[in-house]
């Protein structure tokens, strides 16, 4: 017996009330499945939009920081700037603590001397941070000292796990005045001493 014959035989054997229920079920099931699929797609799109908004927010932070650029040597900053560079390790560790995470390590870069100023930089990798943690950390780094700036920032979005977390690679620099070169001032003193001896 074919499937159509079995269906016809089943239809003939059931009562009119049961036939109405079968018809209603035949209508309701596709509608229910369609509604379920629609809700599932809507939830998926909502999650995607939430992740996209987080990414857009992170990109806005990056654009804002890039727009600031490296620290500008204003007269006030230069006037208070010393020849000893700020120690970046404890500075960044304190900023990380205020942002609610632990800074694991930093990698120092070779100092760069140019136009009478010395730039000391370190690079570090940050993992498993929320956008708020990263934002607060960057704000602390940029605002706690006038001679410190974020000079490079790369943010990576995590798609495989912890989708609400970010990884970041950044470089932070501090600026100081170039110290006097060895022998500056000593020559004049020596010359003055020799002259005094001769005069004596």
Provide structural commentary.
The protein is α+β, with helices and mostly antiparallel strands and 200 residues long. It has 2 domains: 1-68; 72-177, Alpha-Beta Plaits, CATH 3.30.70.60. It has 6 helices and 5 strands, in the order ααααβββαββα. It has helices spanning 3-13, 16-68, 75-80, 88-99, 131-143, 186-199, and strands at 107-108, 112-114, 117-129, 148-157, 166-177. β4 and β5 form a beta hairpin. Mean pLDDT is 76; it is low at 185-200.
Topology:
Elements: H1 3-13, H2 16-68, H3 75-80, H4 88-99, E1 107-108, E2 112-114, E3 117-129, H5 131-143, E4 148-157, E5 166-177, H6 186-199
Antiparallel strand pairs: 1-3, 2-3, 3-5, 4-5
Helix pairs in contact: 4-5
Shape: rod-shaped
In terms of quaternary structure, what is this? Answer: single chain
CATH class of the largest domain: Alpha Beta
Q: Give the SSE string.
A: HHHHEEEHEEH
**Fraction of helical residues:** 40-55%
| CATH fold type of the largest domain | Alpha-Beta Plaits
C-alpha Rg (nearest Å) = 35 Å
The CATH architecture of the largest domain can be named as 2-Layer Sandwich
Secondary structure: number of strands = 5
Which strand-content bin applies to the residues?
A: 15-25%
């Amino acid at each position: 017996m074919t499937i159509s014959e079995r269906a016809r035989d089943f239809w003939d054997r059931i009562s009119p009330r049961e036939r109405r229920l079968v018809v209603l079920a035949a209508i309701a099931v596709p509608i229910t499945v369609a509604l379920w699929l629609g809700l599932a797609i809507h939830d998926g799109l909502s999650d995607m939009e939430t992740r996209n908004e987080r990414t857009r927010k992170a990109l806005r932070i990056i654009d804002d920081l890039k727009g600031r650029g490296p620290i500008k040597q204003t007269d006030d900053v230069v006037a208070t700037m010393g020849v000893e560079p700020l120690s970046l390790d404890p500075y960044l560790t304190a900023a990380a603590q205020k942002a609610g995470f632990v800074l694991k390590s930093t990698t120092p870069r070779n100092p760069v001397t140019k136009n009478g100023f010395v730039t000391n930089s370190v690079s570090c990798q940050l993992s498993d941070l929320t956008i708020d943690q990263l934002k607060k950390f960057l704000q602390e780094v940029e605002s706690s000292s006038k001679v410190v700036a974020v000079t490079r920032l790369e943010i990576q979005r995590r798609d495989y796990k912890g989708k609400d977390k970010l990884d970041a690679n950044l470089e932070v620099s501090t600026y100081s005045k170039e110290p006097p070169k060895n022998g500056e001032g000593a020559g004049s003193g020596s010359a003055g001493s020799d002259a005094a001896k001769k005069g004596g």
